Amino acid sequence: MKKEENFSKCLFDIVLYLIIIQAIFLGIKQITFHFIAEELFSRSMVTMVSMFIGIIFLWVYSKWRSSEFSVLPVKFGKVYIVATIFSMLFFVVTLFLIRGFSLQNMLMILYGGIVTPIFEELLFRGIIWNKLSCYIKREWKTYLLVTILFGLWHIGYAIGIYLWQGGSMLHCIFMKVLWGTLYGLFIGASELKQRTAI
Predict the structure, then answer these.
(1) Which pLDDT tens digit goes with each residue over 41-62?
(2) Domain boundaries defined on the chain
(3) Are 61 and 127 in contact (CB under 8 A)?
(4) N or C: which terminus of the chain carries fewer CB neighbours within 10 A?
(5) Is 163 exposed, middle or buried (CB count within 10 Å of its CB: 0-12, 13-18, 19+)?
(6) 99-113, 129-143, 171-185 — which is least confidently predicted?
(7) Which residues contact 14 (CB under 8 A, 6 or more apart)?
(8) Which pLDDT tens digit goes with each residue over 68-82?
(9) How far apart, in Å, do the first and last CA atoms of the chain sit?
């Protein structure tokens, strides 16, 4: 019974921390946009800086707690290497296919293609996965729970988009959670495969 109580507390703490992180991100945006114009680029840059600070915080937290921080696989298989090369090529090709090769476009791609995925991977497939693995024996159950949390994490993004653009909040939440969950299933599957191959 003690282990179940510890797991419940761990899960509660994780959900609470995720809510606090999203609330901080939303708060930073709301405060910032009292002083500067709120546009797609400025929203993206504020979020990118917040996530970069989040990456540093996650790194400090993992060192303080002596927990594993890396989400890189222990063994680099062919699929991982091919996916990495494909991602790099996609990043480079995108820079040349966009309408204008500018600093603004490069920063938007940096935000959406590098900073956000690194932050989310370190948070979900790094810290949260490792934390839940202490309580859940089967990796596939951890995979499903982390994927659900990852999908629900996107509610914070949806609220931010709604506050900025308006429209239907339920539609916005549904679409962000749906795509976040599908993406989480895909990325989490590669993490699951890598963890169970060891």
Answers:
(1) 888 899 889 988 988 888 887 7
(2) 2-196
(3) yes
(4) N
(5) middle
(6) 99-113
(7) 128, 131, 132, 149
(8) 666 555 555 666 667
(9) 30
